[in-house]
Amino acid sequence: MHELLSLNVRQKISLSTQEEELLKTFFIPKKLRKKQFLLQEGEVCQYAAFVEKGLLRSYTVDKKGNEHILQFAMEGWWISDLFSFYSGEPSVYMIEAMEDAELLLIKKDRYEDLLQAIPSMERYFRLLLQNNLIATQRRLNDKLSLPAEELYLKLIDTCDSIPQRVPQHMIASFLGITRETLSRIRKQLSSSHKK
Amino acid sequence: MHELLSLNVRQKISLSTQEEELLKTFFIPKKLRKKQFLLQEGEVCQYAAFVEKGLLRSYTVDKKGNEHILQFAMEGWWISDLFSFYSGEPSVYMIEAMEDAELLLIKKDRYEDLLQAIPSMERYFRLLLQNNLIATQRRLNDKLSLPAEELYLKLIDTCDSIPQRVPQHMIASFLGITRETLSRIRKQLSSSHKK
DNA sequence: CGCGGGTTTGATGATGCTCAAGCCCGGTGG
DNA sequence: CCACCGGGCTTGAGCATCATCAAACCCGCG
């Protein structure tokens, strides 16, 4: 059950065999069925979750009822609401399973314990956050500078696994456009491509 | 010269007096005059910079020549192109001083040395990245879900120091709208506010 | 005085949104 | 086996928001 996590950690730092065993003891396995929630708006985010299997998303809902997807998380990814997790404030995000999922959860105090017990995990999480920040900055910059069509093109050629598993209207929501607009863009692309 | 940095570090972790002295030895002081660049598009980003004084911005320039501001950095903030700094790839960002500035620079290999020499700095940078990620995610989510006017309102009541020091057209560029649109929004706000 | 940087204003147009309807397809139950 | 339903995708018409382009204005400064 913890294979992916170990692998993921060992890609960034090196651990002794004992440490690797110790690591596992900090996590709680949890299964989620499609459409179940790990976190709902207004709750305090208790866990950081590592995805062993399945696909989740985090999103907000605005006053008009529209959803805006902040993140997808598939096998080998982490998902949480960092702010709520850290501060203990209620969250504004929903985290939902888009497919049946198997997660490894860690609570905040256990997370702190883990960093004490295996100091090199500090480095692991730093690298994780760093990569995440780079990706988020890039996405923000794209959203600031590119029109809808180019956002879509950029998504499909940087990350082809997402479009495979995610329905169109959620891709639209991830890009910050409507499903209708995305549909039209795709139509136009496929027709201009054929000629 | 290193007061702000020490202060900033001590807010997140505790250091012995020796460590604090040691810390300083890793940084190169550097002054920049208004409109000078720390980094230009196409260069590899050699430094992470801590701002002791002044105000900088990082931005990209798109094909049409429009600028898109990713970040402002004032006293007590860090600025860099993380991706280029880490990977050694050429950067797509410009980093420019908007006011005369005093910086503390650290090179990549020295940065690695620092983490070796003072392991608790790993934690400092982790917390830094975490806060930065939270802020960037929030900004992205706002950009995905809010219209121009609300973006502006949100900016002025969360961060009043920016509008003080930054010309309007750069605020517009930070929000991802045009100067003209921002000007009209402000006009409309001030008139509706008076009544 | 004239220049440059920043802001404002107006006219026009494009991009993307809203609302409403229809379609496709796989699953379910009579 | 067929009818029906729901989820997701598409299409069209009209509209709102925001961008573009061009010009004028304001003001501090050499």
Automatic annotation (TrEMBL), chains A, B:
Entry-linked SUPFAM superfamilies: cAMP-binding domain-like
Family matches, as InterPro entries: cNMP-bd_dom, cNMP-bd_dom_sf, RmlC-like_jellyroll
One family name in Pfam for this protein: cNMP_binding
Ranges where the Cyclic nucleotide-binding domain occurs: 1-123
Superkingdom per UniProt: Bacteria
Protein name as catalogued: Crp/Fnr family transcriptional regulator
Organism: Terrimonas ginsenosidimutans
Organism lineage: Bacteria, Pseudomonadati, Bacteroidota, Chitinophagia, Chitinophagales
